[in-house]
Amino acid sequence: MAEKTRTMVREPGPDINTYEIHCKARRDFLQRQNIGKLLIKANERDWEISRQAKTKHFLYPNVWPENALQDWAIFQQDVVTHSGKHRHQGSLVIFVLEGRGYTVVDGVRQDWKKGDLILLPLKQGGVEHQHFNLEPGKPCKWIAMIYIPMYDQVASYTEQIELSPLYTAGTR
Question: Is 3 a member of any domain?
């Protein structure tokens, strides 16, 4: 019985190793900072209905690689009646754009209105929270900002506890 021998032929070119991959990633990062997209218009993003809420994502790491910044998650939420309830490590700021409502954070109600800033603290075991519109039928919107390196550093996770009343599996 004849044995087959395989020979791998490598394309000529520079060695690809971890160091070279790292250097390329840093060059790509710096190039994105210099020539990446600096303006995101509202009409470039769609509203989505998820288990948590009606949301419009503006920045999210690796989703839109053409943007200058990749270290932030920034999204707007439209609190129609109330959001779902979930728990994560916190480390999040929410600026209220319009409307009046409240957020229940670990069982404690925090009332807010247009112009207020909501802080979800960094806590061991995470922060359980849910958002409510005090005037259903009137606009109630806020924008949230998460600095992803901090979120990653604390190994944040999200645990969905209650679904948004707007959510129907598989819809957008």
Answer: no
